[in-house]
Amino acid sequence: MRKKQAKIFYRTNWQIRVSPIRIIDSQGKQVGILTLSEARQLAGQKGLDLVEIAPRAQPPVVKLTDYAKFKYQEQKRRREEKRKQKGGQVKELRFSPFIGEADLKGRLERAKKFSQQGERLKVTIRFRGRQITKQSFGYELIEKISQNLVDYYQMEEKAKIIGKRLIAFFKPVNKNEKENKAEN
């Protein structure tokens, strides 16, 4: 199910009721404090719209701009913010403490792809049944994973047992850090 985004409503032109208002032009420069009728007259002369951007300010701030262009820029800004937030996503790889060598290599290749995308990595080793009595195999596997991914990931903190799972988090190694390691 998709989460609905809250739509932001901006009062425009005749929807604005408060007077006086602070006017800002499309470049962000302050025009001044005008009455509502003066502001509407100015907008009409320039062929632009009044868009209330800060209704709670004293006096309310209104931008003198083309409304369609303003909506497009706001939408673009929100998309950019959303894209930047995505970088903090965590990808999870699940392992068994007695995983085969070929399966391990395949998952490590997938982890390397995640690092190229800048994703954090969560490694989960799931113990089933009596496997929990052999926790040392899980810690050895975490160490093996860490050694194989040393050029791509760095362990954030020590692995922890939570229930019947051994969990470790890795963060991608910065390109600058890789270059520094290569030079040394």
Short description:
The chain is α+β, with helices and mostly antiparallel strands. It has helices at residues 36-46, 67-86, 101-116, 135-148, 175-183, and strands at residues 21-25, 30-34, 49-54, 61-65, 90-95, 120-126, 153-155, 160-162, 165-172. The strands form two sheets. Strands 5, 6, 7, 8 and 9 form a five-stranded mixed β-sheet that branches. The protein has a four-stranded mixed β-sheet with strand order 2-1-4-3.
Describe the structure.
The chain starts with 20 loop residues before the first strand and ends with a helix. It has helices at residues 36-46, 67-86, 101-116, 135-148, 175-183, and strands spanning 21-25, 30-34, 49-54, 61-65, 90-95, 120-126, 153-155, 160-162, 165-172. With 184 residues, the protein is an alpha+beta fold. The chain is built from five helices and nine strands; from the N terminus they run E-E-H-E-E-H-E-H-E-H-E-E-E-H. 38% of the residues lie in helices and 26% in strands. The chain has two domains: 13-85, Roll (Ubiquitin-like (UB roll)); 90-183, Translation initiation factor 3 (IF-3), C-terminal domain (Translation Initiation Factor IF3), CATH 3.30.110. Strands 5, 6, 7, 8 and 9 form a five-stranded mixed β-sheet that branches. The chain has a four-stranded mixed β-sheet with strand order 2-1-4-3.
